[in-house]
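Forum > Structural Biology > Help requests

Title: Can anyone predict the 3D structure of ABC transporter ATP-binding protein?

Hi all, first post here. I have the sequence for ABC transporter ATP-binding protein but no way to get a structure on my laptop. I'd be grateful if someone could post the structure tokens.
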Amino acid sequence: MIEFREISKRFGKQKVLNQVSLQLEVGHGVALVGPNGSGKTTMIKILLGLVTSTSGEITLYGKPIEKQSEYRKDIGYMPQINRFPDNMKVGQLFGMLKNMRKDVSKEQYDLDLFKAFEIGKLKDKKLNHLSGGMKQKVSAALAFLFNPQVLVLDEPTAGLDPVSNELFKQKLKSSINQGKLVLITSHILSDLDEITTHVVYLMDGKVRFSKSLEQMKEETSEHRLNRMIAQILNREEVYV
Ligand SMILES: Nc1ncnc2c1ncn2[C@@H]1O[C@H](COP(=O)(O)OP(=O)(O)OP(=O)(O)O)[C@@H](O)[C@H]1O
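Reply #1:
Sure, ran it for you. Structure tokens for ABC transporter ATP-binding protein below:
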């Protein structure tokens, strides 16, 4: 569905992504993991058109995204850092975005997280008065609101309390089961355990490995994501 074809990115002299090729399919829960600074957020931003690649291309259903303007509408995005308009109230933000997306009817809205996180109760609160976790909840509810086929979530669980974290994971699980594509980054691997169907491990701007969970389970005989990843990395180091 989405293909990264030899994507490279330089910031000045620094090569942040080095010929990254990757295929992402509907119905997959893809965990994009790797050390700090390995290029995860940059990959996501290139996919969303927020940063331009130095070379390579990304295609959606075989067509380069550069030539499409509407493709972003089908991607729900939760950024690592939320930048909401300071003086706006929560209710006003939802109202404004609904007005901008007249292409989606009310019946199509996905209000599961909006309801689960009780965002309605926050409608008169100013966005800059929200706590970090509340902002994450607003951001999560917005990412799902217009029922996109693809969800791109950059460290979405940071700051969520345990109950909200669980509600969020269940929502991700059911979205993947419904055939959506979820691309998620997190350093908290236990948060990814139940939702991941594929792991892409990025290191120094290169894909160190990209495997399905089944493949990783078979190769390692482990059940937890952190142990599987650690074993695969250790084993590869021996052979390098
Ligand atoms: N706008 C920018 N200008 C210059 N360098 C940048 C810019 N954005 C990112 N970088 C650099 O690119 C590298 C990769 O950053 P990126 O945010 O993609 O990493 P990450 O894997 O998401 O890291 P983390 O796990 O810490 O969130 C880092 O060295 C970062 O300093």
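The first strand starts at residue 2 and ends at 11. DSSP finds eight helices and ten strands in the chain.
Shout if anything looks off.
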